[in-house]
Amino acid sequence: MEKAPQGTSVGVDDPYEVVERCDHLTDDGRCRYAAEHGHHDPEFARERRVDDLRCPAADPSGEWEWADCPHFRARQRARECVRCGLEERRVAHDDERPLLEEHHLEYRDDDRKDVAHEITVYLCRWCHAKIHDSWARIDDDASPDPEAIAEAEGRRSRELEEAGFESAAERYGEE
Questions:
Q1: Quick one: pLDDT band at residue 108, thresholds 50, 70, 90?
Q2: DSSP 8-state class, residue 103
Q3: Whole-angstrom Cα distance, residue 163 to residue 154?
Q4: Average pLDDT over the chain, rounded to whole?
Q5: Domain count, the chain
């Protein structure tokens, strides 16, 4: 299994297996990086423009894999744990610790300077601890930890309480 720089597990053998699509990929299969940020890598942008900005990694012909693209990046957009499915519940104006934490699957390899891809998913903090501290894997068939469910439901109850209607008379005890 892949390891973080500190030697802890990241929960997958191949980080690219969990990738759905590159963040720079448009719905029509073009490379947004080459179109909008081409000045950072003019040669790459020029090659993509010759090919009408087509992304060779997203092309069904399989010319590239995600790992072959020098500007690949994939960050999970859904705010739920990829392992157990627990959804984030944030309480506005509260400094409570989030239920979900970012989990980085791809780390820069000091021996290979060309690998600097960002592959990030969300894990609930209970799954995150299990992956870094033990044998757990991201693709395990897991249910949310009972403690995680209790924390999420507590936040949900506070949300409903905050959204509930209470008249001024009830609030201030006036009769």
A1: low
A2: E
A3: 14
A4: 86
A5: 1
